[in-house]
Specification:
The complex is a heterodimer of chains A (about 110) and B (about 110). By secondary structure, chain A is mainly β. Chain A has strands at about 5, 10-15, 20-25, 30-35, 45-50, 55, 65-70, 75-80, 90-95, 105, 110-114. In chain A, the strands form two sheets. In chain A, strands 2, 4, 5, 6, 9, 10 and 11 form a seven-stranded mixed sheet that branches. In chain A, strands 1-3-8-7 form a four-stranded antiparallel sheet, with no helix packed on it. Chain B has strands at about 5, 10-15, 20-25, 30-35, 45-50, 55-60, 60-65, 70-75, 85-95, 95-100, 105-109. In chain B, the strands form two sheets. In chain B, strands 2, 4, 5, 9, 10 and 11 form a six-stranded mixed sheet that branches. Chain B is about 0% helix and about 55% strand. With about 110 residues, chain B is mainly β. Chain B has no helices and eleven strands. Classes of the chains: A mainly beta (about 110), B mainly beta (about 110).
Amino acid sequence: GAGVSQSPSNKVTEKGKDVELRCDPISGHTALYWYRQSLGQGLEFLIYFQGNSAPDKSGLPSDRFSAERTGGSVSTLTIQRTQQEDSAVYLCASSFNRPTGELFFGEGSRLTVL
Amino acid sequence: TQLLEQSPQFLSIQEGENLTVYCNSSSVFSSLQWYRQEPGEGPVLLVTVVTGGEVKKLKRLTFQFGDARKDSSLHITAAQTGDTGLYLCAGVTGNQFYFGTGTSLTVIP
């Protein structure tokens, strides 16, 4: 597709389970970003990839969170031993690597931890 | 972490009214962007401002970047119901985008 694709769109899980969220960026975009958004709030930065490397992981809230990107394309955000406070919408965005580049967002993955 | 505060957090106005949303920070940014997000969707870019003092107009929307490149404002003239959504500012430094706290706008017919 032409846009950023995220899956699953909705995920309900039990506390303590692991979840994987997937992001398929726009072809050719070298930069990929993960953000977390609580209901109606601003975006909390999680991690940024340039190609397959992550120059900035400063936003990951704990060591339960990890992310990888392979082939300079698809990225997976993994949350281990989920907690109720992890419930949020996880947004992925990609961009050409330019100083005033535009972020193109997917529709997000809504995670609910029971 | 660069923090961008937006005000107001919530705004409910009648169709046809004017409004201004503010985005403030103590950090200097190379550019500042405004996005609009509708329910169930990702944010979509409205504008990028680069130069301190720059003013950009997009139909009924006017965006201004502060002289010191630390703050910005979004003014909407004669709001329409289609303007309803969450407005987010984002300060850009290098390859990093720092988002504001968001302003939820509801325009009532």
